Fold this protein.
Amino acid sequence: MVTTATTQSTTRRAILLTIKKRGEARAEELASILSITPSAIRQHLTALLAEGLVAIREQRGSAGRPKHVYSVTAAAEDLFPKTYGDLTCELLDYAGAEGPGTVDRLFERRRVRRSAEAQLRLAGKTFEQRVAELARILEEDGYLAEAVQADGGEWRIVEHNCAILEVAFRYGQACSSELGFLRDVMPDAEIDRISHMASGEHHCAYRVRRRGSDSG
């Protein structure tokens, strides 16, 4: 049975796809293309505006009231197919064919760059604040990360999404580089991976405890 929510979701995706293909579109144009009444289209556009998935601007002509033109926002881009993982793996395959150690060096350069940027953000903060800030950095990178305090003064950094999962499946350097990055920016912490998405688990998780702590 098709629910109203499912129908709305399908219709709104069709609206977004149509706007995306055209670049911009008016409600009347969308109604004609999708065979939906203009009033229904406007209701969906109002919802999409509220969700930040479309933007609106006035298009003034020579006469009459200005027309409203809609375009998709950057926030809507995640709804469209992307093949970044395939492209990255293909490029890494080419790099690996150039010579032994090339892929390792690329991941090392990425780790060094990320570490240097993160260390600037963590500077001057307490241990607990740095753990929380590190989770925020990972969240910004697309890992849906959070820092959770555990027993005995330990912390867990949990990544509910792997932003580079396709790469991680093919190149183990991606995961070892991630762990190296975490250890680089928290040199006074012992950090161990305790859950691993690339190994089939539901999330990646890291145990973080102050170095020298006798917990666990």
In short: The chain has two domains: 4-79, 84-210. The first helix runs from residue 4 to 22. The chain has eight helices and seven strands.
